[in-house]
Amino acid sequence: MTWLESVVFWVAAIGAVAGGIGVVASRGAIYSALSLIVTLSQLAVMYLLLNAQFIAAAQILIYAGAVMVLFLFVITLLGVQEYPFLGHHLPFQRPLAVIFGALMLLGVVFFVAQSPQGITGAHASFNQLLDQNNVKAFGLALFTLFIFPFEVTPLLLIVAMIGAVAIGRRRKRTVV
Amino acid sequence: MTPGPEHFLILGAILFTLGVIGVLTRRDPLIIFMSIELMLNSVNLTFVTFSHYLGTADGQVFVFLVMTVAAAEVVVGLALIVSIFQNLREMDVDELDEMRG
Amino acid sequence: MQHFAWAILALPFAGFIALALWQGASERVVSIIGAGSVLLAFLAALVVFAWLQGQPDTAVARHWTDLGWTWAVAGPFSLTFGVWIDTLSSTMTLIITGVGFLILLYSIGYMRADEGFRRFFAQMDLFIFAMLLLVLADNYVWLLIGWAGVGLTSYLLIGFYYQRPSAVAAARKAFVMNVIGDWGMMIGIFIMFGSLGVVNFSGVFSRVSTLPYNGTVVTVMALFLLIGAVAKSAQIPLYTWLPDAMEGPTPVSALIHAATMVTAGVYLIARSYPIYQDSPIALHVVVFIGAAGTLYAGTMGLANNDIKRVLAFSTMSQIAYMFTAVGVAVYSAGIFHLLEHAFFKALLFMGAGAVMHAMDDVLDIQLMGGLRRKMPFTYWTFLIGVLAIIGFPGFSGFFSKEDIIGAVYARAMAGDGWLWLAWALLVISAGVTAAYMFRLFFLVFHGEPRDQALYDHAHDPPLIMQVPMGILAVLAIIGGWLAVPGAYNLMDAWLAPTFDLFKTRGPAIVPQPFSLLSMLVTLAVTAAGFVVAWVIYLRRNPEPGWVGRTFAPVYQLFYHRYYVDELYDLAFVKPVVLGGRYGISFAERYVIDGTVNATAAVVGWSGAWMRRVQTGYVRNYALSILFGAIAVVAYYVIGGR
Fold first, then answer.
1. Which of C619, C620, C633 sits opposite A104 (nearest CB)?
2. Does residue C359 contact residue C442 with C-beta atoms inside 8 Å?
3. CB < 8 Å to A66, chain B
4. For residues C96 and C135, is the Cβ–Cβ distance under 8 A?
5. Quick one: average pLDDT of C421-427?
6. Residue of C28 and A174 predicted with greater confidence
7. Predicted confidence band at A125 (pLDDT cuts at 50, 70, 90)?
8. Residue in A6, A24, A168 closest to B21 by CB
9. pLDDT, tens digit, for every residue of C580-596?
10. What does the pLDDT look like over C242-284, one tens digit per residue?
11. Euclidean distance between CA atoms C615 and C601, whole angstroms
């Protein structure tokens, strides 16, 4: 990796983490949404660094473009509210969450630090095409090896659509 | 220093942890949902990392499927949130405590 | 023809079922079914007997088993149900059904107008079935089932007059002692199974010789079986139930506690002869239980004033004679006496019943007297019975008793020194028997009536009761001529094939040489006993209580039956009752209830504590999921594969 790529990596990494903190710590939902968009775009940059152009494009189009827009629609529909950061219901929840989260992070870091040697470099099943022409390699894999999930996924989408329509429609007010 | 696979993975872990803390700590359902999205994305990053370094397209295909499912999930989840909370004064997950033992 | 053996079993059982279920049967119908089924069974027994007679006189030929069905299979062990016919079981079936029928005939008259008439006959039929099962079974388990069955029906019939507390107590006492015997038998069968692997007769008897002769296993097995025999036959030390069992109706006493059930112990020992032959120690124990019992029971009979209880003691004494006989391995003499005893004891009980019936159910002989003039038929038949039991020459008891005493004498002469003591006991008891039987006879039938009102009312029993008494009287006279000491022994010849079927070690099972000396000594002692009774009770005719005062200490001992009942009560009954009370108050309330309540309390308490996990907040639940995830990560960090 060249030094330019390294710089890009670190900038994007810091940006992603900052965005993540913003999602979690913002006072209002709208600020969290905007922070998330920041994180998502920084991740797209990461994908480019990892030579996954198709995924990077999909990330921008789908996540940042469609999903977050949907989020913003709902936030504006429901209105912005101001309220305390953490309630008085469960006093131990916040400290415990932070502690457990830190523990888990430590555990993962521990494993990663012991990373096996064979994770990089050439080996038998290394797909050269992936580096040369990512989209082509990706397409080949998607339409040959993973054809079945590819065909089932639209079914999932249709079900989700029907579900959303069924849940979200206006109901007649009945006496409750 | 030159970023290697470890860096990407640790970045993913940090984002994942942030997402977890967000889910556990916040009370606004929309923010909780966004934290979940953060977690999903961190996992995507991990997948793509491995895909790149192991030289196989499987990771990226999986990311593709995760995105699709995440999108569907967001659709249904938001519909649910809208229907539950549109008549409440406050958006507070802690109001839903009828299963208290 | 031999298949009629199954009919012997089926008929009384069918009678029982019919009587048990037929709610509104009239007395006539009940009589016909009840007595008729047993009569038919007797005829079937005769058929089997005839078949056996027709077979050549060898051990193998005069033996037949038939497999009924396989009841249970467990690995290599299978429990079957089948019949076992040989000369011994045939003899027993004839006695049970024959004498049983006569007693049922008698009962038709005796139990007339009793509101439990149908119940009585149903239970008697059940008893006869159980007894037949006992003698016809081809393995020890079914024998035990029959054994328990007669114990049950004995309980039912002793407690027949269930409104009487004394009857209920007596029934319970009999049952408890029988259960102790059942326990002993069970342990014996367990040992049998454990050491030999089988429980059916052919298996056990052919394999028992593989065990060391006179060794621990065989002896212990034999002794445990003996516990059962002792309880059932009312021998020392499990005999105290028998006098109390007289609470039941007289026909019950006649059939169960004279002719059949109490002889089951003798049958058991005779049937198990290969086991006992292999253990001379056990045989000696049998001899001494028997020999001691003859005198012991006789002394108690001297002091009792209840007509039936005197007969109960005489039963115990005579069965003790049978025990002595099988104890010296002269099994045929024991069975011979069993046969004769069935005749004259049933006759005596019938006579006692006739007296009771006439005297308004009074039992106390001190209130009787002079009934000779009012009840001639009863008088003569009773006299025949008395002469038979004391062994008057020519009557049945003489031949069978001489057989036994002579056999003991011969074995003693042959070298077994201990047997001289047994012989002496038997001879003295013969005298005591004569004494107490004639005491009873004179007090009841001779002299002047001591209660005029009862006396005026007395009369001979109705015809239906007289017929069986008459038949038994004839049998009591002629029955003994099956074997004349010194001349011939048809009984032994008949039973020989049975005791020849399995080869055994131990004393030889052959008829013993006859001894004129022993016979004369016995007759002399018997005569002496008669003279004593005659002198005291007939010539001097004392007022009641004179004997009691004159021989006070000895009399008190006999009258209170050596205080054994009180001893048992103190040693066994009281501790159990106290233990039960303690159990209820402490163990039941605190331990058992406490444990159950504590368990419930713990469950409730832990549930209430666990309930706090259900906070209702989804975020909490998510936290616990995270916690689980960390646990998994930690597992791998620590080094799990």
1. C633
2. no
3. 71
4. yes
5. 90
6. C28
7. low
8. A24
9. 888 777 777 788 888 88
10. 998 888 899 999 988 777 888 899 999 999 998 898 888 899 8
11. 23
Q: Give the type of residue at A26.
A: S
C119: exposed, middle or buried (C-beta count within 10 Å: 0-12, 13-18, 19+)?
middle
Give CA torsion, residues C463, C466, C471, C473, to 10 deg: -160
In the three-class reduction of DSSP (H, G, I as helix; E, B as strand; rest coil), residue A2 is classed as coil
C307 near C241, Cβ under 8 Å? no
pLDDT digit string, tens, across residues C105-127: 999 989 887 888 899 999 999 99
Distance CA C200, CA C194 (A): 13
Under a CB-based contact definition with an 8 Å cutoff, are residues B46 and A94 in contact?
A: no
b/e per residue, C285-294, with b = 16+ CB within 10 A? bbbbbbbbbb
Query: What single DSSP character describes residue C259?
Result: I
Of A93-107, B78-92, C436-450, the one with minimum mean pLDDT is B78-92
If phi over 0 gives left and psi between -120 and 50 gives alpha, with beta otherwise, what is residue A121?
Answer: left
Domain B5-88: which CATH number of 1.10.1740.10, 3.40.50.450, 3.60.20.10, 1.10.287.3510: 1.10.287.3510
Q: Shortest Cα distance from B95 to chain C (angstroms)?
A: 8
C619, C620, C630: residue with CB nearest A107: C630
Counted across chains B and C, CB pairs separated by less than 8 A come out at: 31
**What is the overall mean pLDDT for chain C?**
87
Domain map (residue ranges) of chain B: 5-88
Q: How confident is the model at residue C212 (pLDDT cuts 50, 70, 90)?
A: confident
What is the distance between the alpha carbons of residues B52 and C102, in angstroms, rounded to a whole number?
Answer: 109
**Six token digits for residue C563:** 């205080």
Q: What angle do CA A80, A86, A88 make, to 5 degrees?
A: 120
Lowest mean pLDDT among A32-36, C34-38, C396-400: C396-400
How far, in Å, CA of C52 to CA of C57, rounded? Answer: 9
Residue of C261, C346, C361 whose CA lies nearest to C307 = C361
